Amino acid sequence: MSEPACVSVEIAGAVGTIRLDDPDTRNALTNGTLRDIAAALASFDASAEVCAAVIAGSDRVFASGSDLNALAQLDTIDYYFGERARLWDDIRSARLPVIAAVSGFCLGAGCELALMSDIVVASESAQFGLPETKLGLIPGAGGTQRLARAIGKAKTMDVVLSGRLLSAQEALAGGLVARVVGGERWFDEAREVAAEVASRSSVATRLAKNAVNTAFEAPLEVGLEAERKSFAIALGSEQARQGIAEFLARRSERRRS
Fold first, then answer.
1. Are 70 and 35 in contact (CB under 8 A)?
2. pTM of the entire predicted model
3. 27 and 117 inside one domain
4. Burial grade of 2 (CB within 10 A; 0-12, 13-18, 19 or more)
5. In a domain, 2, yes or no
6. CATH number at residue 172
7. Same domain, 215 and 191
8. CB 212 within 8 A of CB 98
9. Do residues 100 and 142 both lie within one domain?
10. pLDDT (tens place) for every residue of the chain, 257 residues total
């Protein structure tokens, strides 16, 4: 029997929004929820109109972690080779830029979902944590790897081993979060960031996302080669040709005036 998923998806202009809304479980990430997130991102990737995505929760919680009831029914083989691992891979593989809009608690698998995003916009109330060791587990969707790359070994060890939470400002200072927004503007700010990203060349933003990710996954020489290749591909695109031509025309017009 499939789990109920509480996810809404909408498209406004060039921005697709995925909203988690399951207050009964505090937005726990069931397989059904992950399935809906992965399907939405895949549909955005396949669309010629959608150029950036936002994943958001509620004011009080982005996502509280995995669905423990479902997790308790899995054995080693089920988890390692099963649907849940594949769904995480599908979400991670989204090609378009993804902005996480985080308010309130962002814990466990929810924190890992935010870490998979390209830009994290947080409210002042946001708190980030990976408390799995309290349950005799460890983060299982990239948390130990991505958090260490974001905030360094020392703080990651503290968060993972002791279970302490990072405030929005700590997450900002450490590099996990890109922007902290006061008041109730966290969601609007995330959508504005997504709209700005979406207004740019979709070829360029996807290539740039891939190049920056390569910087964390490969030696410098490999990253430089990947960047050079991506630049060449972008240069040959129609969007780049048009963008360069429009810029040169505006500059010529300013010089004449």
1. no
2. 0.90
3. yes
4. exposed
5. no
6. 3.90.226.10
7. no
8. no
9. yes
10. 455 558 999 999 999 999 999 988 899 999 999 999 999 999 999 999 999 999 999 999 999 987 777 777 777 787 777 788 899 999 999 999 999 999 999 999 999 999 999 999 999 999 999 999 988 888 889 999 999 999 999 999 999 999 999 999 999 999 999 999 998 899 999 999 999 999 999 999 999 999 999 988 888 888 888 888 888 888 888 888 888 888 788 887 777 77
